[in-house]
Amino acid sequence: MSVEQAPVQRADFDQVMVPNYAPAAFIPVRGQGSRVWDQAGRELIDFAGGIAVNVLGHAHPALVGALTEQASKLWHVSNVFTNEPALRLAHKLIDATFAERVFFCNSGAEANEAAFKLARRVAFDRFGTEKYEIIAALNSFHGRTLFTVNVGGQSKYSDGFGPKITGITHVPYNDLAALKAAVSDKTCAVVLEPIQGEGGVLPAELAYLQGARELCDANDALLVFDEVQTGMGRSGHLFAYQHYGVTPDILTSAKSLGGGFPIAAMLTTEALAKHLVVGTHGTTYGGNPLACAVAEAVIDVINTPHVLVGVNAKHEQFKARLQQIGTQYGIFSEVRGLGLLIGCVLSDAFKGRAKDVFNAAEKENLMVLQAGPDVVRFAPSLVVEEADINEGLDRFERAVKTLTQA
């Protein structure tokens, strides 16, 4: 017998939720493919993808099927026991990457927390107490736990929470000389996003990642790639490191891994993984059967030539139209990114107005993202249909036209 639910509205957020978010004025209630409907029945096209999460759009039948099938079998057993979906998913990730061992958890921050703890533990075991320094990039983003937010190179997120974790250095992104100057025999890890996501959708230069790999090898440090946003096909490869041909020691994945269901993974080698012996790290929910069953379905769909080739074709479709819009209305100075992680850098006349673009797009029934105040970000479904791309970009052009002529 169902219980009648009291209606809720956007105003309820301000009454019951901690005010650390400022969500849009409407509430999405249903999604199908790359379309979303709000409480009033308004239809929007989704180019935000839940911040690069909804890799197969909304209500994809393969994911719905995997979730409902598993839901009728087994939800949770903790890590006192293992489970079949987790083992199958681990095999699939290992078969598709450099990795030999997998650790499952629930979010990108947790995957990065595990990666940073592993890097420090390896250095501690191999070299002693003095080798613990982590070097990361300015404007990077690695999560919101106290450790990961300090490794992230944006002080606006890490200030005001007491003493900062020591042994973390930040250097300019894509500046190999600065990285070289920072690395020493105390460095245990260099942590980089192959494409800075929250920092403005800024791809690494190939020579920069190659140089980082060489510096780590020369200084007994580990190279960690945060692929929370770039992983699972978003770059046009299953992981962006494969685009560059530079292999890390540790890789983190989340967001698209579950296609909307919370799951994350840290991937590494057997030689490094053995340093996390029983009791050194853990998570109650990590690798639960529901999440792993969904992620299995995600990788089965995504890791195919058809989808990955399609990502690159869709990139060209987006880029050409966005460049045309940017030139015609003088709003963008650059369109950059890989695959279906695209950033439109606002021109000087519109600097700081990414939120205004977001709001204008919403008025035209389109969902987009920001990546800081100066970049409009697109992270749609990897299987977004051509008709949705065209219609969504038509809506975006109308939004830009309205904004630039205001």
UniProtKB/TrEMBL annotation:
Organism, scientific name: Pseudomonas trivialis
UniProt subunit comment: Homodimer.
Other noteworthy facts: May also have succinyldiaminopimelate aminotransferase activity, thus carrying out the corresponding step in lysine biosynthesis.
Record protein name field: Acetylornithine aminotransferase
Annotated metabolic or biological route of this protein: Amino-acid biosynthesis; L-arginine biosynthesis; N(2)-acetyl-L-ornithine from L-glutamate: step 4/4
Binding-site residues, pyridoxal 5'-phosphate: 108-109, 141, 226-229, 284
Enzyme class: transferase
Family indicated by similarity: Belongs to the class-III pyridoxal-phosphate-dependent aminotransferase family. ArgD subfamily.
